[in-house]
Structure formats: structure tokens, C-alpha cells
Amino acid sequence: MSATETFVHRFVPGESKRTLLVLHGTGGNEDDLLPVARMLDPESALLSPRGKVLENGAPRFFRRLREGVFDEEDLVRRAHELADFVAAAVKEHALDAAQVVAVGYSNGANIASAMMLLRPEILRGAVLLRGQTPLVPEKLPDLSGKGVFLSSGKFDPIIGAENAAALAEMLRKAGADVTHKLLPSGHELTRVDIDDAREWLARFS
Ligand code: MLT
Predict the structure, then answer these.
(1) For the chain, does the N or the C end have fewer beta carbons within 10 angstroms?
(2) Distances in Å between the alpha carbon of 183 and those of 107, 113, 192?
């Protein structure tokens, strides 16, 4: 089995040096966010894996004990496994390893920020749509030069505003350039999320 066969995934070649690592939310799959990712950047390559953990049949990227309470041991293991998959895909498709930007929604945003905290060399930046603090590492990595766009919903019943703010603060403390938007919406993705993320990505090079 080749290293990229470790995840069911889609790969769509692009016309620029950038690759968007597309990470779905709980119950989604590798096809879900491809149209959104295309709206965010019409030219980048797209790499979209399916989370391997099943919660009552719903794919996720790591186990949780209940809503908002993560199985940290599993999360750490899965973040490394996903990072290894991305590194293998970069090699296989001759992608620019320095231009991989994650685009994650909800559970996908959470594995993306865990990866950034644990394997910072894999990602140049991340668009975290409805992300929350996935874990607090023993030692903060050096995220200088990296960019993060975090988009939160003021009325999100799953993610408290303080939790998202704490994530933004931790990433900033690690040196990342963080843009945090708080929208008047819930956990669902809105048109404004997409427009704001597209503008942010267009400026991020
Ligand atoms: C998570 O479990 O990662 C978050 O609670 C978001 C979700 O997937 O519902």
C-alpha cells in the first residue's frame, strides 16, 4: 500500500503552487467541501482526505468522548497520521511543500489546528471555519511566518466564543499572523465565511 492510500481521498490538480488541504466536518466526506475550496481559490490543487474515525457511522478526523471533549491521545496520533499522509501526497504529486494551506470546517478545522501545533512544518497556513481549541501542547511551536484565518459564529451552540478566542490567542502567541472574525451566525457555514476566507486567502501568499 502506498503512503497516500492510507486515507480515502480526492486529489484535484491545480494551476498554481498552492495546495488546499480540505478537511470536512463530522459526518462529511472527501467530496463535501471541494466546491467550497474551489470558491476559495480557483487555481490551487485540492487534497481532500476522509476522516477515518466513525462515530455512529459518521466520519471524523479523531475520536471524542462527547461533544466538545476530545480523546487527546487519539487526536495526537491522528494529527501525526494526517501530517504523514500530506507529506506523502506532496511527494507523490510533486507539490510545493511550502504552499500547503488547510481549509477545515468544524472537526476538520480542529484537526488542522492540532496539526499546525504538533507538525508545523506541514502547513503554511490554515482557514479554520468554526474551529475551537483542539489541545494545548506542552511547548508552543514556532509559527512565525504562518497565517491563520479563524471564522467563528457568535451564536454557535457547539463552540463557545471564549474557546475560539483562546485558540486565536494561542496561535498568535506561537507567532502566527491570526485574523479572527466573529460572525452573527451559528455553527453552520455561511456565504460571509466563504467571502471573507476567499479575500483572506487572496492576500495570503
Ligand atoms: C469536534 O468534535 O471536532 C467539534 O465538536 C466539532 C464537531 O465536529 O461537531
Answers:
(1) N
(2) 19, 20, 8
CA distances 204 to 124, 127, 139, 149, Å, are 10, 11, 27, 10
pLDDT tens string, the chain, 205 residues long: the values are 777 889 999 999 999 999 999 999 999 999 999 999 999 999 999 999 999 999 999 999 999 999 989 999 999 999 999 999 999 999 999 999 999 999 999 999 999 999 999 999 999 999 999 999 999 999 999 999 999 999 999 999 999 999 999 999 999 999 999 999 999 999 999 999 999 999 999 999 7
Do residues 155 and 184 lie in contact, with contact meaning Cβ atoms separated by under 8 Å?
A: yes
Distance CA 147, CA 143 (A): 8
Global confidence as pTM: 0.97
Q: Is 156 a catalytic residue?
A: yes
Cell of 137: 501542547
CB 183 within 8 A of CB 153: yes
Burial 124-149 (b: 16+ CB within 10 A, else e): bbbbbbbbbbbbeeeeebebeebbbb
In the reported structure, the alpha carbon of residue 15 is separated from the centroid of ligand 1 by a whole-number distance in angstroms of 32
The partner residues of 104 in beta bridges, in order of sequence, read 23, 128
Instruction: Using the mean position of ligand 1's atoms as its centre, give its distance from the Cα of residue 29 in Å.
Output: 14
